[in-house]
Amino acid sequence: MKKLVLFLTIIFMTMSYGQEIKQIPQINVNGEGKVKVAPDQVCISATVETKGTNVKEVKKQNDEKIDAVLKFIKKMNIPTADFKTKQVALNPQYDYDKKKTNYNATQTIEIVLKDLTKYDEVMEGLVQQGINRLDRVTFESSKIKQYETEARKLAIKDAKAKAEDYVSVLGQKVGKAITISDNTQVYHPQPMYATMRMKESSDAMGASNETLAIGEIDITANVSVSFILD
């Protein structure tokens, strides 16, 4: 009997608590904060890809091209900490029609170029030294964390301003925030040819002779906020 009384008491308290929470007047709004900044660095992911029927020769050619690429990068006075080998692969590919095995060697170098005035020269030089595939070119800001913080603060201010607009005609005031959800997604601009495969000819990067209009990075924060109404 005592257990039954205790059980009913807990159920009653839980129901009362739930009803009390539901009765709290509140408003749910979304807020957006946006900061526009000019990129001050670019991340380049570039690959040397070599194919052939002789595995030793394929690897040798690939290594020689990578060696030339690394020497060029150092010649451009890019700090050692700003470039690294990202991926190395040597794979057999069997041709069922010709009944023979070909080999595909790839090495990927990732470079963070912090002097954008060197961009065209670096891109042209990479291709001339053997790079024949650009996997990714992303323009970034070295102060991204700082700008993300600014965007989040602006998003919260925007949410509160919206809430105040809605309740101003009701004679109520916006109180404390009770829940905040971050719905932010970060986007980095990329040039159109960032993922294209290039020819090995010297004119493969003709587009890189032109100055890119990279514009600005939109750093946007989106939040959902629930405010108590006083």
TrEMBL record:
Gene3D superfamilies the UniProt entry points to: Protein of unknown function (DUF541), domain 1, Protein of unknown function (DUF541), domain 2
Membrane spanning stretches: none
Sections of the chain in a coiled coil: none
Pfam families in the record: SIMPL
Cited InterPro entries: 26kDa_periplasmic_antigen (IPR052022), SIMPL/DUF541 (IPR007497)
Gene Ontology process terms (BP): DNA damage response
Identification of the protein by name: SIMPL domain-containing protein
Organism: Flavobacterium hercynium
Classification lineage: Bacteria, Pseudomonadati, Bacteroidota, Flavobacteriia, Flavobacteriales
